[in-house]
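User: Hi! I'm working on a homework problem where we have to compare a predicted structure to a textbook description. Could you give me the structure for the chain below?
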Amino acid sequence: MPTWIQGEIVENKQWCPDLFSLKIKTDPLSFKAGQFALVGLEIDDKLVHRPYSLVNTPQESLLEVHFNTFQKSFLTSKLAGLVTGDTIQISDRLNGLLTLDQVPDVPHLWLFATGTGIGPFLSILKTAEPWQRFEKIILCYSAKTVENMAYRDDFEAMLSQYPDQFYFVPFVTREKPADTINARITTYLKSGELEKHVGLTLAPEMSHLMLCGLAQMLDEVTQHLETRGLHRHTRREPGHIATEKYY
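Assistant: Happy to help. Predicted structure tokens:
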């Protein structure tokens, strides 16, 4: 069982009607960029909780979690209604293997995210380590609409800071804005257009992939890449593809 610490809401940012980010003040926590914490609320004398990846880096003083209310879960609807000064419970131990210490030394790091699965990648990319370790970093980020693409300004800033190292490929599936790709990540990958777009090849000896988001994306990308000689990465069997499923 986790040990819980109390946090205080500092900010509740609403990106659009069903997308939120909470900034939370707590005692310092030890974790690795890309990991998740259990976040809970006391509801009817019961602590209701679920895991959320942290968007912040270990060096930042405030915790930040990013979530949507698409599925109308009881907890997320309550989280969406929190205001500055409200209290929340956070597990003091974080978990998750979507971290850079699990990634072998290869030239190219590919990051595929759908929706709120972008959270752990923002945490990772705000640290110095990926920029020191990898020659090229390719972020493919898919959202339903432009307003659902949270933190885009952060990635545009990284693109300006690392123009020869960072590739930011935004996908929007339900609109056709001129500065995004109107397709699913999996469709664009399978057609070969993604590699043409960035000018890089997903070769096993050159690449490691981290996938975070909907199960369908994770499964389809993994199945496709397995036909090309890439396979899942585990502690027991090093490979090329690390995944974390969001529901």
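For your comparison, note the following. The first strand starts at residue 4 and ends at 16. The first helix runs from residue 74 to 80. Good luck with the assignment!
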